[in-house]
User: What shape does this take?
Amino acid sequence: MVADQRSSLLKVEINSRSSEVWDWKKRIREFAVLPRTGEFLHLASDQNWFRVENVVHRDPSMGTEIVLYAVDSGMAMDFFDDAS
Assistant: This one.
């Protein structure tokens, strides 16, 4: 069962930056569900939430079929926990 779930993960290239500077960082991650433009994600437990600005689909021969562009929202990891 785990092997089946693993094969359904999408390999995604994530290009992220801070909100003030164009300091793009590239990471490769796997997702079961692809984030959409306007949604938030976090890349590490000690980082802020990133807002997805753009989602690009490309040819699988390039290594990843999906490229996300995300900008640091400035909201701490626990922002959404505090809002409830």
In short: Residues 2-83 form one domain. The chain has one domain: 2-83. The helical segments are 2-7, 79-83. Residues 17 and 24 are 5 Å apart (CA to CA).
